[in-house]
């Protein structure tokens, strides 16, 4: 089942990309295997408790992110489209509301370009959190690279 991924304008997107030292399949596994994902998902110092991770279109991803100082952040998501090992697309049902599109492209046998795109319904909603997430997204990718090195 293929879902049409809605087009969005740059003012409604936060895009983070990185080329990692991993095959496309290995990079995809780091995002799709909950045993790996729970280790690196989130900014520096965060940990995760996964309550449900049903990695298929229509499947739910329910988890709690635990902040390093304080705070527990409930997250509720639904996987919309998965094309292994090229694409993962999901929708958040918890605030702030946005959709996530992650694409994987082989640069070479052991290098993969990952594009992580957060898509908002309005430019205002995007702008509201943009200043808070750009640096945090880089921390997430740093943690991903650490996990990939261990895999």
Which key phrases capture this entry?
single chain; 151 residues; alpha+beta; Alpha-D-Glucose-1,6-Bisphosphate, Chain A, domain 4; 3 helices
H/E series: EHHEEEEEEH
Q: Give the CA-based shape.
A: globular
CATH superfamily: START domain
C-alpha-based Rg, rounded: 15 Å
Share of helix among residues? 25-40%
Low-pLDDT sequence parts: none
Which class in CATH terms? Alpha Beta
Q: Can you tell me about this structure?
A:
It contains three helices and seven strands. The longest helix has 28 residues, at 123-150. α1 (24-32) packs across α2. The protein has helices at 24-32, 34-40, 123-150, and strands spanning 13-20, 47-53, 60-66, 72-83, 87-92, 99-108, 111-119. The mean pLDDT is 95. β4 (72-83) and β5 (87-92) form a beta hairpin. By secondary structure, the protein is α+β, with helices and mostly antiparallel strands. Strands 1-7-6-5-4-3-2 form a seven-stranded antiparallel sheet, with helices on one face. It has one domain: START domain (Alpha-D-Glucose-1,6-Bisphosphate, Chain A, domain 4), CATH 3.30.530.
Write a concise synopsis of the structure shown.
This protein is of the alpha+beta class and 151 residues long.
Task: Produce the secondary structure layout.
Layout: E1 13-20, H1 24-32, H2 34-40, E2 47-53, E3 60-66, E4 72-83, E5 87-92, E6 99-108, E7 111-119, H3 123-150
Antiparallel strand pairs: 1-7, 2-3, 3-4, 4-5, 5-6, 6-7
């Amino acid at each position: 089942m293929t879902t049409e991924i809605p087009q969005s304008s740059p003012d409604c997107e936060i895009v983070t990309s990185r080329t990692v030292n991993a095959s496309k399949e290995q990079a995809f596994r780091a995002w799709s295997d909950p045993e790996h994902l729970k280790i690196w998902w989130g900014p520096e110092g965060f940990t995760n408790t996964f309550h449900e991770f049903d990695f298929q279109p229509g499947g739910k991803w329910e988890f709690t992110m635990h902040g390093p100082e304080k705070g527990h952040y409930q997250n509720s998501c639904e996987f919309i489209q998965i094309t292994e090992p090229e694409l993962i697309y999901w929708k958040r049902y918890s605030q702030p509301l946005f959709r996530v599109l992650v694409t994987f492209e082989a640069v070479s046998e052991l290098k993969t370009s990952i594009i992580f795109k957060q898509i908002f319904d309005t430019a205002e909603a995007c702008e509201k959190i943009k200043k808070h997430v750009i640096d945090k997204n880089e921390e997430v990718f740093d943690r991903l690279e650490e996990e990939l090195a261990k895999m």
